[in-house]
Specification:
Helix content: 25-40%
Distance between the termini: 19 Å
CATH architecture of the largest domain: 2-Layer Sandwich
Strand content: 25-35%
Order of helices and strands: HHEEEEEHHEHE
Shape: elongated
Number of strands: 7
Strand order of the largest sheet: 3-2-1-4
Low-confidence stretches: 1-23
CATH class of the largest domain: Alpha Beta
CATH topology of the largest domain: Translation Initiation Factor IF3
Length: 165
Amino acid sequence: MRIPVFAAFLLLLQYTGYTQELAGIAAKPSPTVKAIKAGRLLDTEHGTVLENVVILVDHDTIKAVGKNIPIPDSAQVIDLSQATVLPGLIDCHTHITAQPTGDYYGDIFRRTAIDDAVTAHVYALRTLMAGFTSCRDVGARGLVDVALRDAIAPLCRHPVYWLYR
């Protein structure tokens, strides 16, 4: 069971460009400091939208947020001045390893856990690209959810995928 999940995971890594980073053969080291220029920033603590702000990130930690933040010369600048930036969303009820096709009995009786394992990474990537940086899976067959969690874990510094059984 783990072999199809691992193969699918490798395809995901190739698609997203993480294979060089994991292998330690990146062409050039990426800057540790990133400056994100946000046109609008949703401030969830105060319930406001801030405009034209800079978010300074060092490694995986936000160091500063504000209008007049000086940007270091060595920083990688990410220009989102035409976009709205918001914190990562959390989905607390997912079945991320499968997607209903509209054929209820076909989904239950004709699809196997291996079918789910082969496609689970696609749904995980779609969830991430939709803005959900954390999710809680509430059930999958054949422990595909556990294999998916274990495959994603090395890419994350913090837990982002919780399982409830």
